[in-house]
Amino acid sequence: MNPVPIRRPFVLSGGGARGYAHLGVLKAFEEQSIFPEVIAATSAGSIAAAFICDGYNTDEVRQIFKLHKLGLSMQWRNWSSGFLSLKKVEQVLKQTLRHTTLESLPIPLYITATNFVTGEQAIFDKGPIIPAVLAASSIPLLFQPVMIDNVPYVDGGLSGNLPVEPLIGEYRDIIGVHVNPLTPYNPAGGFLSNMDRTLNMAISERVLKNKLLCSRFIEPEGLGEFGMFEFNRLEKIYMIGLEYARHLLEEYPEK
């Protein structure tokens, strides 16, 4: 007999390429018949969450990434060609998502971005899915802000990289997944390494507070060896998320 499915609220952080670990973590939960009842997400986590809340399973999302070569399109190349083609992400979302608005999704989804005028966290749970995902993923200096209703929005991690706020008071037993570990300082680190560390330090305090609001906090060990721009290593990132969550669920089963 198949076990009765368990539904839990999930929070998925940003983390650039490390966001692919979310699929590995969710796969481990799928194997235990534990599925999201709602997801709150930002930045890279919102890309994974959009597919999952649209009704895809983790294997299907991985196939979409492989078929459309999203990993290749998202690698840092050079200053002239830029980093991470959001146009490619937008194109793939348009081609593959079955729903167009947040309120029509079969699994509720809250996407958080940062109001670039006030610096405040903005929560999207209605309206078009794709602009909200793009806004939540737009790192300042690397991308132009995304305009929604004449307001510029940028990466949601800046105002809360573990956006548990939309779920508080409405859901219990929240599972927070954070893929942006703060690694030991390396004085020999280059520009991208230092930029990655700077972003992590800037957002770490709020993450520490929000993790206390989760009944289970998952931060896969080993992700620190991957930079947020290493989209050519997605499979290794996925396996770290998968194996870490498998071990965690074996040692501490969800009840």
UniProtKB/TrEMBL annotation:
Sorted keywords for this record are: Hydrolase, Lipid degradation, Lipid metabolism
Instruction: Motif DGA/G: list the residue ranges.
Output: 155-157
- InterPro entries, per the entry: Acyl_Trfase/lysoPLipase, NTE, PNPLA_dom
Pfam families named among the record's database cross-references: Patatin
Molecular function in Gene Ontology: hydrolase activity
The record's active-site residues are S43 (nucleophile), D155 (proton acceptor)
UniProt short sequence motif GXGXXG, positions renumbered to this chain: 14-19
- Show where the PNPLA domain sits: 10-168
Keyword Methyltransferase part of the UniProt annotation:
no
Q: Which SUPFAM superfamilies match?
A: FabD/lysophospholipase-like (SSF52151)
The GO annotation for biological process reads:
lipid catabolic process
**Protein name listed in UniProt:** Patatin
Species name: Chitinophaga oryziterrae
Q: Tell me the organism's taxonomic lineage.
A: Bacteria, Pseudomonadati, Bacteroidota, Chitinophagia, Chitinophagales
